[in-house]
Specification:
Layout lengths: L9 H45 L4 H7 L9 H11 L4 E8 L6 E9 L12 E9 L6
Antiparallel strand pairs: 1-2, 2-3
Helix pairs in contact: 1-3
């Protein structure tokens, strides 16, 4: 015997669908925040690595001319890569260019591991950033 106006499971279906949407929204909030943080972190690491490369100046050229320039060797980029490699989030090769002697350009990539959205089939994401620095004289 059925009761008139009785519950036939509609509330259970509504609750399960609503819970799914709440979990997806929580995933967007949490993993979206992680993504924004990763973009800022990538920029920070790239800036630090570029400064490390630009800090390796040619002292003989500086003494002769009074102008600073980056060493014409692999050492500045090695220093930048070494600094960036100490951060565990950095993935892939760290690109570095000091060929003009006036600036160091470094590009890094960071992997973002999703916490909640991975349950819905979203894979990890990669954020990248590029920064440049140049040596200063007379400071």
């Amino acid at each position: 015997m059925t009761r008139p106006g009785g519950d036939r499971g509609t509330v259970a279906v509504f609750t399960s669908i609503f819970a799914l949407f709440v979990l997806m929204l929580a995933g967007l909030l949490v993993d979206g925040g992680l993504t924004i943080h990763a973009r800022q972190r990538a920029a920070d690491i790239a800036e630090q690595a570029a400064r490390a490369a630009a800090d390796d100046i040619d002292e003989n050229y500086l003494r002769r001319t009074g102008k600073a320039r980056i060493l014409a060797s692999d050492e500045p980029c090695r220093r930048a890569r070494l600094l960036a490699a100490t951060y565990h989030e950095v993935t892939g090769p760290i690109q570095c260019d000091t060929s003009d002697g006036q600036s160091a350009r470094v590009a890094v990539r960071i992997r973002v591991k999703f916490q909640l959205l991975s349950a819905f089939g979203f894979s990890d994401m990669t954020m990248s950033s590029t920064a440049s620095a140049h040596p200063q004289e007379g400071i």
